[in-house]
Amino acid sequence: MNETSLSLLSRLRTPDSDVWNQLAELYSPLLRLWLRKYDVQNSDADDLLQEVLLAVSKDVSRFQHGGQPGAFRGWMRAILVNRLRKFWRARDRGPQARADSDLDARLAQLDDPASEMSRIWDRDHDQYVLRQLLALTEPHFESATWQAFCRVSLDGEKPAAVARELGISLNAVCLAKSRVLRRLRQESEGLVESSTSFPAKS
Predict the structure, then answer these.
(1) 195 near 188, Cβ under 8 Å?
(2) What is the spatial distance between Cα 202 and Cα 200, in angstroms, rounded to a whole number?
(3) How far apart are CA 177 and CA 163, in angstroms?
(4) Residue 110 near residue 81 (C-beta atoms within 8 A)
(5) 16, exposed or middle or buried, with CB in 10 Å at 0-12, 13-18, 19+?
(6) Surface-to-core class of residue 29, CB atoms within 10 Å of its CB (0-12 exposed, 13-18 middle, 19+ buried)
(7) pTM
(8) First to last CA, the chain
(9) Domains of the chain: which residue ranges?
């Protein structure tokens, strides 16, 4: 990561409340989804979500990416598993109290980097974070630039056709795509395994 990177991961290491608000905005819906998958009721989700984010804030200065693909999402997954285990233990809902639940086995699967559940987390994480980064990045560009980028990069339309329909030059379309992709790659550096392909908009 170079020193001028716009990466959220880089900026998290500085004491900036705006950056932490961005992290919470980026990750809260994804974490809530996974809390629900592990039987956390809505009444407990807010507190547990804050615990996960607090753990991230305390430990991010010690996090070492090391250039390994998916290192941050794996670190985030480990924090989530740890907090879920503590949550259930604190409520005295061990396996005996949950005889009809496979929660412990499911948590063990999520904790195992080689499991199918971890692969689902990886996929959900990258797709979700990229979609959220798209939403956070859009306000930084003019409408025509963003529209050209979306139609070419997300919708798969031909640049020449987009240029004709928008009434701009082919060069302007290509520049729009390049500028937005560069910003997205900078923002997502270290957070997702690949920032070169983006899911289609839903």
Answers:
(1) yes
(2) 6
(3) 12
(4) yes
(5) exposed
(6) exposed
(7) 0.73
(8) 31
(9) 8-188
* pLDDT tens sequence across 143-187: 999 999 999 999 999 999 999 999 999 999 999 999 999 888 877
For residues 99 and 161, the answer to whether their CB atoms sit within 8 Å is no
Map tokens 């996960």 to a residue.
52
Nearest to 77 by CA among 133, 27, 42: 27
pLDDT bracket for residue 92 (50, 70, 90): low
- Residue 114, C-beta contacts closer than 8 angstroms, at least 6 positions apart: none
Q: CA 168 to CA 184: how far, in whole Å?
A: 23
Digit-coded pLDDT (tens) for 103-153: 888 899 999 999 999 999 999 988 888 888 898 889 999 999 999 999 999
